[in-house]
Design goal:
Distance between the termini: 37 Å
Order of helices and strands: EEEEHEEEEE
Strand content: over 45%
Helix content: under 10%
Number of strands: 9
Radius of gyration: 20 Å
Shape: globular
């Protein structure tokens, strides 16, 4: 009987990488990419649907970063003439996420274009060891390569 190698790991965080505004985000704590397609049943006579119709596509997500990363993004936005990252036009922001199981395996790459950050909240609690910030965004497209 041959040996069967069953691995349950999907992706190692240490092999992940997020590039935003041309810069690797070292203070990344998490991310979410979400693509939604509106779909609904099409009914005619009878009680069963005839088909499923598709509508609008919506791309959105969030990144969770350490506070120094938000500070760096806001400084870059101010140097470009904006008050903070939420005011930078979506045409100017592109993000690339690279994931892989092991260093030897091929990377899964997501390109997210046209990002508009919708809020940037600075908060911290008593006894916190770090400042984590979640930045939700809307995007024009999410493409898996």
């Amino acid at each position: 009987m041959a040996n069967i190698n069953i691995r349950s790991s999907e992706c190692a965080w240490k092999h992940g990488e997020l590039i935003l505004l041309g810069r690797r985000i070292n203070g990344l704590r998490g991310f979410e990419l979400k693509k939604t397609v509106e779909k609904e049943h099409l009914y005619g006579t009878g009680q069963n649907p005839l088909d499923i119709q598709e509508g609008n596509i919506k791309c959105e997500g969030s990144i969770k970063v350490l506070g120094f990363e938000l500070d760096a993004m806001n400084r870059a936005a101010m140097m470009a003439g904006y008050s903070d990252i939420t005011e930078v036009p979506h045409e100017a922001i592109v993000m690339t996420v690279k994931l892989q199981k092991t260093a030897a395996e091929q990377k899964t790459v997501f390109n997210v274009r046209g990002i508009a950050f919708t809020e940037a909240v600075n908060s911290m609690e008593q006894n916190a060891k770090m400042r984590e910030v979640t930045l939700p965004f809307l995007a024009m497209d999410i493409i898996q390569m």
